[in-house]
């Protein structure tokens, strides 16, 4: 069965701007991969991330290098042997999953989960800003049950307090994006405990997070940049309480499913997160996130426009993908 592989870049405007400690952006640049066979087409989307040395050009080049193997019939199980984890492999892996579902008539959820998928409550992300601006954001979205707040400066106390004041009843996740230090860790943890923060993501830089092992953790601490592959999990279990599984980091749904099982084996809580992308990129993650402790799949909600058809969002609920979208 001969296949045809295509990859293209697309740009989706962000509603306003999305700001983290590393900078701001106004568009989501995604790479879409399609694999066709027998008159059917599977699709996958990825978001190249500069933090991991990726660019749109490098991801397109990595996918192009796989053209011959994919068109000759390479399966997703073999991708991990020839491609590193990352965005390019994610686009290919998810396109292969989608193609398999279309060729077999068996939906992806039926292959990976034991029960039909249900809607999930997703976090909604608030950008980094001055405390007053962040409090206004929090007040606007205080009706949501779960907020994710970008922090990661040398002193985030007033930002944390401002967000809690703006959304007194919401559960709050903080994402420090590697912006804290071993020296200010205890200080920030104390502020988190005061503000009833549910979880903080990646407070220290990946590769320089051993201090977490020696600090009392009054709140849950989640690995993000520190965890990509299953091999990372055992090395991190002594310093984290949870891991954030993202398809673009893991290199696709295949590896992400193994990460989910590895986290359970090490008694780590599971968060399923995303980059800022469209519903096509979120769709497989919604299936992965079934049963997760924390879900952060709000990428399409941050865009000025999404794909059609897209995922169904109702407030903070996100529903499983229809076959017309993916899987």
Automatic annotation (TrEMBL):
Residues holding Mg(2+): 175, 201, 224
Cofactor(s) essential for the protein: Mg(2+)
Keywords: Isomerase, Magnesium, Metal-binding
InterPro entries attached to this UniProt entry: DgoD-like, Dipeptide_epimerase, Enolase-like_C_sf, Enolase-like_N, Enolase_C-like, Mandelate_racemase_C, Mandelate_racemase_N_dom
Cofactor note: Binds 1 Mg(2+) ion per subunit.
An annotated Gene Ontology molecular function: metal ion binding
Record-annotated Mandelate racemase/muconate lactonizing enzyme C-terminal domain positions: 131-222
Gene3D superfamilies on file: Enolase-like C-terminal domain, Enolase-like, N-terminal domain
Catalytic residues, chain numbering: 150 (proton acceptor), 246 (proton acceptor)
EC number of this enzyme: 5.1.1.-
Top-rank taxon, per record: Bacteria
Family: Belongs to the mandelate racemase/muconate lactonizing enzyme family.
NCBIfam families in the record: racemase_DgcA
Protein known as: Dipeptide epimerase
